[in-house]
Amino acid sequence: AQSVAQPEDQVNVAEGNPLTVKCTYSVSGNPYLFWYVQYPNRGLQFLLKYITGDNLVKGSYGFEAEFNKSQTSFHLKKPSALVSDSALYFCAVRDQAGTALIFGKGTTLSVSS
Amino acid sequence: NAGVTQTPKFQVLKTGQSMTLQCAQDMNHNSMYWYRQDPGMGLRLIYYSASEGTTDKGEVPNGYNVSRLNKREFSLRLESAAPSQTSVYFCASSGAGASEGEYFGPGTRLTVL
């Protein structure tokens, strides 16, 4: 069965510092991996996805994610955090035969000024 | 392009009442989904529809029914609402292929008293 783990409920970082939001997954075969962001009282917005190829994927708002097959991880990163990055972040996975995305429980990112 | 739209935005029901949540997309997507979001639990799939005329159960289908009215519209019905169904409900859609991400609506915040 497919699953996604986001081991941190909350990540706190100071503005200007690099940030990492962790995600590990379990899926049969090659995974399709996604990151979404949710701002308060809003729907989920797509940030980036990994399909195949380069392990470093670049997405919206300066975010990037690194796919590591041996560690079954897909961590979200940003070199310099902004206060406006404060939000709830979800990692999701789907296998190649899958239907709906399977989501992690989410990580709240709090960036302080 | 409105993307994915949901109505209503907010609803309060009494236990035992019924209601239908409406969802429509204008992206010509084949697949549509209903999720519920509860604090600390991420998004859980209620039902999905891979194409017009087909629907399948997700992780938490009990107490819900769905209708894929046409390619654009996918409704979720609560026949007899229970307090455990208090949640935020999101509709999503995606194009063909497992590598496609899902596009989310703004959500419906439902409270069952």
Topology:
The complex is a heterodimer of chains A (113) and B (113).
Chain A: E1 3-5, E2 10-14, E3 19-21, E4 24-26, E5 31-38, E6 44-50, E7 56-58, E8 64-68, E9 73-78, E10 87-95, E11 102-103, E12 107-112
Parallel strand pairs in A: 2-12
Antiparallel strand pairs in A: 1-4, 3-9, 5-6, 5-10, 7-8, 8-9, 10-11, 10-12
Chain B: E1 4-7, E2 10-13, E3 19-25, E4 31-38, E5 42-49, E6 56-57, E7 64-68, E8 74-78, E9 87-94, E10 103-104, E11 108-112
Parallel strand pairs in B: 2-11
Antiparallel strand pairs in B: 1-3, 3-8, 4-5, 4-9, 5-6, 7-8, 9-10, 9-11
Give the gist of this structure.
The complex is a heterodimer of chains A (113) and B (113). Chain A is mainly β and 113 residues long.
Textual characterization of the structure:
- The complex is a heterodimer of chains A (113) and B (113).
- Chain A contains no helices and 12 strands.
- By secondary structure, chain A is mainly beta.
- The model of chain A has no long low-confidence stretch (mean pLDDT 93).
- Helix content of chain B is 0%, strand content 51%.
- Chain B has strands spanning 4-7, 10-13, 19-25, 31-38, 42-49, 56-57, 64-68, 74-78, 87-94, 103-104, 108-112.
- In chain B, strands 2, 4, 5, 6, 9, 10 and 11 form a 7-stranded mixed beta sheet that branches.
- The N and C termini of chain B lie far apart (36 Å).
Mean residue pLDDT of chain B: 93
Largest chain interface and its two residue counts? A-B, 26 and 25 residues
Largest sheet of chain B: 7 strands, mixed
Structural class by SSE content of chain B: mainly beta
Q: What does the average pLDDT of chain A come to?
A: 93
Q: Would you tell me the structural class of the helices and strands of chain A? A: mainly beta
Please tell me what the overall shape of chain B is. globular
Count every helix of chain B, treating DSSP H or I runs of 4 or more residues as helices.
Answer: 0
- What's the total count of β strands of chain A? 12
